[in-house]
């Protein structure tokens, strides 16, 4: 592979991974497909890019494509890619469990509320409000250390002597 293709591959591969991590699965699939076309599929890096493509297919709702590519990767020359693809294929082919309705949490659509209620709309004066809030902050007065009582009150010595006497008394009485 020449350096120009290597550079294009790296750009597309990183862009595909970044799109996947942002949740843009369709963009991730497109970028990873381009990256996979630019590199030898039987290389270690080619296998890694194809594994990312399998996960992007699955996340994007293209389970059949994900399973088909993952089955191809189980025969990949690189042992680590084979091992990962077998584990991923096992997960992809696992049956979907049905969850009871009472286990599910229903999240209400708050988009309609925010559009209809003016008090929930974002305020365009957010910068002026933040400046006002900063002006309202109260900075505490510094403490005058000359007014603080730093005189030793002998409490530690009294407590230490009391502990010594109690320990000695317990030893003397045999407890």
Please specify the SSE layout and strand pairing:
Layout: H1 3-22, H2 25-37, H3 44-59, H4 63-73, H5 79-92, H6 111-116, H7 126-136, H8 155-173
Mean pLDDT: 84
Number of helices: 8
Give the name of the CATH architecture of the domain at 3-92.
Alpha Horseshoe
Q: Estimate the global geometry from the Cα principal axes.
A: elongated
**Helix/strand order, N-terminal first:** HHHHHHHH
Poorly predicted spans: none
Strand content: under 5%
Helicity, as a percent range: 55-70%
Determine the structural class based on helices, strands and strand pairing: mainly alpha
Write down the Rg: 33 Å
Please report the first level of CATH classification, the CATH class of the domain at 3-92: Mainly Alpha
**CATH fold type of the domain at 3-92:** Serine Threonine Protein Phosphatase 5, Tetratricopeptide repeat
Q: Mind explaining what this structure looks like?
A:
The protein has 175 residues and is mainly α. It has a domain of 90 residues: Alpha Horseshoe (Serine Threonine Protein Phosphatase 5, Tetratricopeptide repeat). The chain has eight helices and no strands.
